[in-house]
Design brief:
Layout: E1 2-6, H1 11-23, E2 27-31, H2 34-48, H3 53-71, E3 76-78, H4 83-86, H5 91-99, H6 102-131, E4 134-136, H7 142-148, H8 164-172, H9 177-180, H10 187-190, H11 193-203, H12 209-218
Parallel strand pairs: 1-2, 3-4
Helix pairs in contact: 2-3, 2-11, 3-6, 5-6, 11-12
Length: 219
């Protein structure tokens, strides 16, 4: 079952609906009201014991998707962590290419993988443990890491595209080009959760998102 979550005007939900229809996926999604989303944000701040905007906004995606899966009694969830690092999917990889050469890109991929524990894995597995989810990250399989990091970066990105080899692989197995080459959106943006936190901040009388999140930490 494929799960997608967001608030109103979520690009991820719009695209997921289209893809699921084209390929007849078993697909479920939920568009949260602002009030429902506020409860999610409060819970994520409490679970993570952290008010960092990026951690909370991304963590809210996993938390809400995990809850949706659990409502179907599905407690095993597959995620895509590691794909950006292995196949040069971030802006910092493109910056490395522009500033130096492909060796710099390769080095940046390794640096990202090494830093994932503190940046991404603690966040996601803390949430998974709290919910009782078995979170699996197939892109971080040791053999896949060895294979992907043996691929020359020239096959991963150019000045116009990132994750090229992964997109080509998706096309090879039958995914339409418009889906395989869709421009990346980080989860917090595709879900529109960033906008949701901004709305919640204003609703609660705060000009800055960080001040709103900090207020939740104090409660």
């Amino acid at each position: 079952t494929c799960y997608t979550v967001g608030i109103e005007n979520s690009d991820d939900i719009a695209w997921a609906q289209k893809i699921a229809k084209d390929y007849n996926f078993n697909f479920k999604y939920k568009i949260f009201t602002l009030e429902e989303f506020e409860d999610i944000v409060k819970n994520v701040v409490k679970v993570l014991n952290d008010t960092d905007f990026v951690k909370v906004s991304i963590g809210s995606v996993l938390y809400s998707a995990g809850k949706l899966a659990l409502s179907d009694k599905n407690n095993v969830l597959f995620g895509g962590l590691g794909s950006e690092e292995l196949f040069a999917g971030y802006q910092r990889h493109l910056d490395a290419l522009r500033e130096n050469d492909f060796e710099s890109v390769h080095k940046e991929c390794w640096n990202g993988l090494k830093n994932m524990w503190q940046r991404d894995l603690i966040r996601d597995f803390t949430i998974a443990k709290n919910l009782g989810l078995d979170l699996r990250v197939p892109f971080l399989d040791k053999n896949l890491i060895k294979l992907a990091m043996s691929v020359h970066p020239i096959y991963k990105l150019d000045k116009a595209n990132k994750k090229i080899i992964l997109r080509e692989a998706a096309e090879f197995i039958g995914l339409k080009r418009e889906y395989a080459w869709r421009k990346k959106q980080a989860a917090q943006y595709g879900s529109n959760f960033v906008n949701g936190i901004e709305k919640l901040a204003r609703k609660n009388g705060f000009k800055l998102k960080k001040d709103y999140l900090q207020s939740l930490f104090k409660k």
